[in-house]
Structure prediction request, 163 residues.
Amino acid sequence: MKLKFILVLATVFIASCSSDSQNTIQKLPSGKEIKILSIGKIFLKKDKPVLMLKYQTDVDIKNVDLLRKEVEEIWPMFRINVEKSKYSNAIIAATSQPVKKFLIFSTNNSYNFVASKKENGIWDLNSWKRDYNEEAKKIAERHLEALKNGDIISGVKSSPMAT
Prediction:
């Protein structure tokens, strides 16, 4: 009986050590695949609940520019879930591959990208270390300049008529 108990305990221990878990693979528009580790509600102090998507990345966690590009591809898909669930705050957590340290213990690093919906319904992504407002302003200025120069008419590029 004692041997049977030890065998069951050893089997459970070995199964818990397995790194092969039930994660979802999500294909991004670019064709790149990411491993979704979890999606769930978390609570932060004094704030409303947040929907958090945690995924595993191959990008170096220290390379925030590359991580942001990856997250900018994930955000439109995750935003649908966030809005459908009626959250006004979201976090996308990019997590590095786990590094085995000892038996079942491992470590990894992560970087969080926070999105907060303003009262006007627009998502604030300023924590993503990119000035989206400034970029939008520059695009608008280029568009207005092109309109002035006659390069575009009502948002459609003009082209010579074929005769």
User: Anything to note?
Assistant: The CA atoms of residues 22 and 161 lie 58 Å apart. Residues 21-124 form one domain. The first strand starts at residue 24 and ends at 27. Residues 3-20, 155-163 have pLDDT under 50 and may be disordered.
